[in-house]
Write a structure and sequence with these properties.
The protein is an alpha/beta fold. It has nine helices and 13 strands. Helix 8 runs parallel beside helix 9.
Length: 273
């Protein structure tokens, strides 16, 4: 089920018994930010033997407030993500939000990410599948892991078997999320790699300020539990200064804390194999 990952990580060490990392800033803010994060994280991952996919959204379409930052311009942002790929020889990913975006984004990135709130959007899933790129579908906060079989079926029916599913928490009341770790093995039953979105699982949505909150102190807890139950990969948004990030700063991991966490996670994975 993971043959396409071996191709994706060509040139990087990839061991199915280990885990891979999807990480980067939430959104493309500037070239300087992307290069700083990609350079730092790729160096850490190379030293630890962790295959790495760089992530940055070229546009944020799902914002609580209409006044929130959405991007620097689609073409400019996608070009910068592509520049990361070329400079650091890394696979890259970004979100798409409408079916017409799939073919455009596919020219620049290796993995098309489907946001959780759009995981049931049939035309979007079919368009992403049609590009031939790997499609990473985040589980909706309103869905169980077993319900994601329908997203998998839609993509496969469209002729694409290169699928990743991502757990990112389940709605708990109006302003919190909880993680049901049963969803990881449940979604693996569909013979796809399953990723734990560590940082988005710690969001505190629907704040009256119009800015989503978060609980980053629990990042290590969520990540360690996911590794312990056998997640194939981790998704962690990171930024040198989360308090200054233009999107999702409240739940990001500070960049200088990433190496220590990954060192712990590698030891844990080796211990539970």
């Amino acid at each position: 089920m993971k043959n396409f990952l071996k191709d994706l990580f060509f040139g990087q060490d990839y061991d199915e018994k280990s885990f891979f990392l999807i990480a980067g800033p939430c959104v493309v803010e500037s070239e300087e930010l992307l290069m700083e994060v990609a350079g730092k994280v790729s160096g850490i991952c190379k030293n630890l033997g962790i295959p790495y996919i760089f992530k940055a959204s070229y546009r944020k379409a799902n914002r609580t407030s209409g006044n929130s930052f959405t991007g620097i311009g689609d073409e400019k942002a996608l070009s910068l993500v592509k520049k990361v790929n070329e400079k650091y020889k890394l696979p890259t990913t970004s979100d798409i939000h409408a079916h017409e975006e799939a073919a455009i984004a596919a020219k620049y990135v290796d993995v098309l990410q489907i946001p959780a709130f759009l995981c049931r959007q049939t035309d979007l899933l079919e368009a992403a599948a049609g590009t031939g790129k790997i499609v990473n579908v985040k589980k909706g906060q309103f869905l169980s892991g077993p319900a994601m079989k329908f997203a998998v079926e839609k993509i496969r029916k469209a002729g694409n078997d290169k699928i990743i599913l991502t757990e990112r928490g389940t709605t708990f009341g109006y302003q919190d999320l909880v993680v049901d770790y049963r969803n990881i093995p449940w979604m693996q039953e569909y013979e796809v790699p399953v990723v734990m979105d560590v940082t988005h699982s710690l969001q505190q949505p629907n704040q009256t300020t119009g800015v989503t909150g978060g609980n980053p102190k629990m990042i290590g807890t969520i990540a360690k539990a996911a590794i312990a139950v056998g997640a194939d990969g981790l998704f962690i948004e990171t930024h040198p200064e989360p308090s200054k990030a233009l999107s999702d700063g409240a739940n990001m991991l500070r960049l200088d804390l990433l190496e220590g966490l990954l060192q712990q996670l590698v030891k844990l994975r080796n211990a539970v194999q």
